[in-house]
Amino acid sequence: MLENYEALSQTQKNLFQDIANRLLSSTFLSRDKRDNKDNFYFVVSFKEIFDEFFQILGYELLLDQAQGVVMIKSNSTSNTLKLKRDETIILLILRLLFHEKLKETSLNENVVISIQDIHDKYNYLEIKRRINKTDLVSALRLFRRFNLIETMGDITVSNTKLVLLPSLLYAINTEEITEVFNSISRIIQEVSDDEKAN
Length: 198
Hints:
By secondary structure, the protein is an alpha+beta fold. It has 2 domains: 2-74, Orthogonal Bundle (Arc Repressor Mutant, subunit A); 85-197, Arc Repressor Mutant, subunit A (Orthogonal Bundle). The chain is 55% helix and 14% strand. The chain has 9 helices and 6 strands; from the N terminus they run H-H-E-H-H-E-E-H-E-H-H-E-E-H-H. The chain has helices at residues 2-6, 10-26, 37-45, 47-57, 85-102, 115-124, 133-145, 168-171, 177-197; strands at 28-30, 59-64, 69-74, 111-114, 149-152, 161-164. Strands 1-3-2 form a 3-stranded antiparallel sheet. Strands 4-6-5 form a 3-stranded antiparallel sheet. A hairpin with an 8-residue loop joins strand 5 and strand 6 (161-164). The chain is globular, with a radius of gyration of 19 Å. It starts with a helix and ends with a helix.
């Protein structure tokens, strides 16, 4: 690895360090996110060096060129982000919306939704406890930081558009969309049970 790394120019070394740190802090890079595109192609070009580097740290680098996603995966649970219940529900809803809207989208188009679509799906799923604006905005900022979505305007406004990035497929790694529905149902049941207990 050191030989290959040393063969890089100083500019490339600086970029390598920047991208490695980005992946360590956000897990995902998505080719379809404006500020990720150049970094994505840099990883494609120097994947072998990234593979070896992350392997030393105990991570596996996954590259899906078809979907345009780079992610790092660790077998350790110490680096796992623990989501709050509402954040989990919103993430699952985003995954459902990605699946639904993908059918209406051509191959070279991004999947775009509005904030209102999240509220509509929340209502459709008959989740008794409504998501408040502060929690929704906070969750969307978190998912933007992890390169799962890209915002196209003020996320406090219901008609603002969001680009759902293919990295969502890896954040919720399931082949069957029914598993996503089942996960939401389990969480709704837990909320209901908690409310009855109190």
